[in-house]
Amino acid sequence: MKYLVNKSGFQVVVLVAIVGMYLLFSPNYDWSDGNKQSPYGADFLQEWVGAKLIVTGNASKLYDGETFKEWQHDSQLVGFGWDSENYFPPVYPPPHYMLFSPLAILPYRWATVVWLVSLVVAALISARTIAAIVESNYARDGLPDSPSRNVKSQWLWLGLFLFPSLLFSITLGQKSVYWLLIVCWTWRLLQTQRDFGAGLLFGILSIKPTLFFLLPLVMLRHRRWQFFLGATVSVLVLWGTAFSMVPVESWVAYARGLKTAGSYAEIAGYRIEWSCNLMTLAYSMPGAWVAWCKWAMCVPLSIYLLYCVFADRSYPIVSAEKALMVLATTLAISPHTYHYDLCILLLPILWLVATSSRQGNAYYMMLAVGVVVAADMQELLHVPIIPILLVGIVCELRLRGVLPVIPVCKTIVPSSTSIA
Questions:
Q1: What is the domain range of residue 18?
Q2: What span, in angstroms and rounded, lies between the C-alpha atoms of 61 and 122?
């Protein structure tokens, strides 16, 4: 029975059960053609509307706020009505919406169902990829096969689905599960020394620039030229294709919106209790202190985190520890990350759960509990706990790598002897 969790049939049953629970019990996937407080499919609505504008020949209006809002509230188009005072603004680059074009061909209701199923499938594939990475790591280290080792890697999918950030991502119809999948496949390709392919794949993440920027620079630092070349080719093809589909005025409008990237937390509707970057530390301060804290606290911490990543030589680039350092730093210094973006940390954390259980379990539980209590901590104490935890993780990994290992000395107690 304990090996059942690794069988494809069982995982299909799990997939169907999870999708069924979301469709039956989640308010965000409860279809109604009447008026709703929040939209069916949650955040997926803005991806679908953006892609719909492109496939219907209205790409010139992609970043026109009024048009974007009007299409989201067009009950004839999306099939329902919802709070007309709210809407999701177009904040992503044109290639992002371009990749959603196939789903925009479907009616919104069924496109949302397909999207939900794809998120759960992506999560399962991510879990299997992490398990493959772990097994390859075992083989590289020459560890003998054992039932306990197999069970540990086979149960990783359960830890993945119990992680609050992943559940949060699926509930909100967010793409973070796909970011996790891209990260998992990237490290798997790096592990098998296919750097160019890894770069090609990771280049897709350029549609989410706030998560893309750091790893290519780290690979340059480690002279992994093939990865950087692959990422460059991927970015040029992806963004070049989008440039051919979206008119110049939309690109200009998008570039104009980038001016507010550093002050994203000041936009209406921003949920500071969901934020997990260093800027949250500044915006949690009294109003008069915000600007000062950005420079006196966020900038020095960002520089130190970057120093930890680029100066570190203790861990190989294809290791759980290095992956955790890079990804945690990316989340911390990015201008905008929410709790669901923590999904990408499941790769290194579950990798450590399987190979270094005490360390991996500590990271897992710390972040899982942190996400659950973050809103309460923000409300009661005005303390954003997640960015503090991310800084702590990077610092701990840095110190673990540079401090000498102190051997544990055992005290030998002499046994008593009787004297005749």
A1: 6-111
A2: 31
